[in-house]
Automatic annotation (TrEMBL):
GO CC entries: axonemal dynein complex
One Pfam family recorded for the sequence: DHC_N1
Domain Dynein heavy chain tail: 2-358
Entries under PANTHER family matching the protein: AAA+ ATPASE DOMAIN-CONTAINING PROTEIN (PTHR46532:SF4), MALE FERTILITY FACTOR KL5 (PTHR46532)
Family membership: Belongs to the dynein heavy chain family.
GO molecular function, one term: dynein intermediate chain binding
Top-level division of the source organism's lineage: Eukaryota
Protein name: Dynein heavy chain 5, axonemal
GO biological process: microtubule-based movement
Amino acid sequence: TWMALDNRVRNSWREAKECTAFLECLERYCQPLYSCNPETISKSLPGLIRTLFTINTVSLYYNSTERMTAVLTKITNQMINSNKRYLSCNGTKTVWEQPEDAVKRKILACIDLNEEYQTCFQRVKDETEVPQTREFHFCEVFVFGKFDAFCNRLKKLLKLFDCVQIHDSIISYQQEVLDELPYSLEDSINKMKSKDYDFLDHKDLHFDEDFAEVMKVFEEIQKSITAAFDEEFTSIKSTILSLKFLDKLVLLHLPGANMNEKYFQVLREYKRELEDIGLLFKRQKQDPPLPRNYPPVAGKINWCKQLRHRIEDPLKILKERCGVLDSDLGKKVQQKYKRFHSMLVKYETEAHRHWFQE
């Protein structure tokens, strides 16, 4: 009837007017999504989420899960598009054509934005779970899943950059090992770069296939390099030289190097060195070997100082390696060191006293 049609028109008009008012409130919080970088977008998120909650609470149109999910999906899609523009310099450069450090900072900013987005939602959701308040619900998997998938793509890009950095470090240290390998990480990555797909499109699975191939090559290189380093490490018989070797190896950030176990190997070797030096001290303390043209007392002091340096220098380095000396073995080694060190100090003090009395 005419009255029914009139009521429908009036209701639709009121609904449209209400939606327009709410969307105008939302507009100022959505504006940064179109023009700003992730850091600035992140600052607008608390206001954006709270405004959405208010709309969800009082609006007759946006009070359903489906409609609120639709709004948040559009917001999420716009965030992803803004991140893509941010990462590609408004579509003018690929991630490979920009400085590596700059791209890494951008990627981390985008990942942080996703985390802040979900944190803000959870915070508002927790605040609204009180009696007599309409719960703020929507399909979280559908909304956040897209952003998570995009960030997973970014994390893979980060991993590629890290692999290249590790590879470059290895080149400066073990070029000859890489030259013997039948595959090259550089060739694999260059092959990937030559592809014409969008590396930031998380829905394009061609990247994932190429990424898996690059990681396979990197893992093979890693195994070969790790084996070469292990062989070199095993051949070193001096504690201090082993520690200096490990200090270089740490700088490579090589996955699979098992650094913690290597430091414990050095600790066990240091324990044996302490015992050997202790036996040497007991055997030679009455008549130590003297450098040529050294007076007897000065020679004793010099000999004692050399022994002290041999036990002090490795321990200084081991103290900087968190957890090694905190272990049961580390505590035993430190006790043994303190006892032997006090013996050396006492021996040196006695030698000085005799020297002054002469």
